[in-house]
């Protein structure tokens, strides 16, 4: 454009270039004065805007979505991409970061924010709206591959789902979120209780504290909820609560995509999640591979013969990757280093305070996410940690309800460094020990007032002389006794049933 203009109106050409490419016009006074001094610029942009370019190149579109979500969850750009994704540069949304043109990033606010706005806008001619949170589009991203084998990284978007899921309501049960074919006793006993997403952090004096994720954690200027681990040592440090973030976005060499902690019945459980098919070998054509993907009017996914649903056996092979000893089995580290890292990981997982599992068992749930639907799971005995499948119906309902405008505001705050770096100290509370937080209350005095205790002792001494036996009192309690029982948790009710076995003294 500058050559066509003869470099007569450089500021006017730049203004038209930016406006055409990103959809934004520059309004600062200095630029306006320059354009006025240069005179009328009659050169028109001869290329399409970023929205049109992104829409016509599925790999560029998926990578753009990946980077946007990574900014929203972690507050910064993911590791740079290689030359295999050079189409990011030719599309205008990416740029080279080094003189050798071997590293590519999408860290320029203008193009990336313009692409995000386009992705959240409505299609013309009354078609369905395109969206940053479209379930159909997301499923397409997870099934695509670049020609060099690179795949879409879904960890940040799945983290966004969990953050919104637990911040908008406090009554989500495990059965709403996961499908668990065989739940161990420690997990099955608590399935009727809601779960919470928490952030564990170690203070300067070594005290582990917790922060429950609330709606304020999703404000555009709130500190990021995710931490990008660049190595296995980073993962271990996060597991030890020495790194920020409620989510650990795992490095590419890790078999898991995402790790976080849920609070369930005053106990904690690790969630180690992997997207099905991640890192598996695939036969790729020279171009970007996308399966044919359709949705019926009712929203049900319709696939052609190119894509098949995982079988039960294939699903169980996915869970093998999530065994602690296998998390870095694909790493290029030597066997000795992998063994040491696995031992460090196991120690960190076992050190979870208030683990929901009983002593000697790992409080960990292995989760595989399959899109667009869940495969049929069969019960399977395993000596390893329990397994689950992500409930895709809940995933779709939650993600598609997220306002795209909120995501764009968070993206803008992230790219302009306007987000807080740390949560306020008063947002955390010390983690109570399991002995004090989950020990059943079995003492009778926890239920009775002093007057009721004195009255009961008198009844026992009289041996039922008042006309009411001790057994009848247990079967037909008075109003005050009934209200006391209704106010206590189930463990205390079991204590009451034990007290009914006291035999009345014979007169």
How would you explain this protein's 3D organization?
It is built from 21 helices and 14 strands. With 507 residues, the protein is of the alpha+beta class. The strands form three sheets. Strands 3, 4, 5, 6, 7, 8, 9, 12, 13 and 14 form a ten-stranded mixed beta sheet that branches. The protein has a two-stranded antiparallel ribbon with strand order 1-2. Residues 279-307 and 435-507 have low confidence and may be disordered.
Summarize, please:
The chain is of the alpha+beta class and 507 residues long.
Give the proportion of residues in helices: 25-40%
Radius of gyration over alpha carbons?
29 Å
N-to-C terminal Cα separation, in Å?
109 Å
What summary fits the major beta sheet? 10 strands, mixed
Q: Uncertain segments of ≥5 residues (pLDDT<50)? A: 279-307, 435-507
Arithmetic mean pLDDT: 77
Q: Quick one: how many beta strands?
A: 14
Outline: elongated
Portion in beta strands: 5-15%
Q: By helix and strand content, what is the structural category?
A: alpha+beta
Q: How many helices does DSSP assign?
A: 21
Quickly list its features.
507 residues; alpha+beta; ten-stranded mixed beta sheet
Provide the fold topology.
Layout: H1 2-5, H2 10-22, H3 29-38, H4 50-56, H5 58-74, H6 87-90, E1 95-96, E2 104-105, H7 109-120, H8 135-143, H9 155-167, H10 174-177, E3 178-179, H11 185-188, E4 195-202, E5 208-212, E6 226-228, H12 232-239, E7 247-249, E8 258-264, E9 267-275, E10 293-295, E11 301-303, H13 312-320, H14 335-350, E12 364-369, E13 387-390, H15 392-399, H16 404-415, E14 429-430, H17 434-437, H18 450-462, H19 470-475, H20 479-486, H21 490-499
Parallel strand pairs: 6-7, 9-12, 12-13
Antiparallel strand pairs: 1-2, 3-13, 4-5, 4-8, 5-14, 7-8, 8-9, 10-11
